[in-house]
Amino acid sequence: MPANRLMSLLAVPIAIGLAPATALANGGGGGAAGGVDLIPMAALDVPIVEGNRSSARLRLKLVLRAGDPVAAAKITAEMPALREAALAGASEFARLYASPFVPVDAEKLAHDMTAVLHGRDSTITAVLLVNVVASPA
Question: pTM (2 decimals)?
Answer without folding.
Answer: 0.73
